Amino acid sequence: MGVLYDYFRSTDDDAAIALMDELAGGPVARAAGADGVAVDAVDLKWIDPPVALGQLVSFVRDAPWRASLVQSRLIWNPEEHGPWLFGLDDAARDTLASISGGQLPELSARWGRIDEFAHSGPLPEGELVPVIQAIAGLARRARDAGDHLYCWCCL
């Protein structure tokens, strides 16, 4: 069992924290649409902000990866062992929002070769296209609405 990650958009930290209270700590993506909760979220299970998502951001920017590329700040942690809620920086949101359809095959191929995914060799060509489309679409909707991206995670 590993760490689970849900990404979602919200107007601000207070609204994101209120969502955590409304969902009794999450998860966010599975709650989307349930019980009258309206939230735009994607379940990215094993994609953490600093490493895996950070490497996608580095490929889009054509810049070297570093752990601080996707900056996050802890904004909610009711218990020591989770769940946790992080706010992500708008620069990462805007980079993800800028991904175009023409970039998807190359980004999927490059991202599919990172150590976090390619335990037994590179992932099959195009396998990560739907994942990239999901996070890029969420980021685009957040940017266009003036919202911010958040990451809920839990063991």
Comma- or semicolon-separated keywords:
155 residues; alpha+beta; Hypothetical protein yfbM fold; five-stranded antiparallel β-sheet; 5 strands; 36% helix; globular
Outline:
The protein is α+β, with helices and mostly antiparallel strands and 155 residues long. It contains five helices and five strands. Helix 3 (90-97) crosses helix 5 (129-145).
Description:
The chain has 155 residues and is an alpha+beta fold. The protein has a single domain (4-154), classed as Hypothetical protein yfbM fold (3-Layer(aba) Sandwich). The protein contains 5 helices and 5 strands, in the order βαβαββαααβ. It has helices spanning 13-22, 49-61, 90-97, 104-111, 129-145, and strands at 4-10, 41-43, 72-76, 84-88, 148-154. Strands 2-1-5-4-3 form a 5-stranded antiparallel beta sheet, sandwiched between helices. α3 packs across α5 (129-145). 36% of the residues are buried. The mean pLDDT is 92.
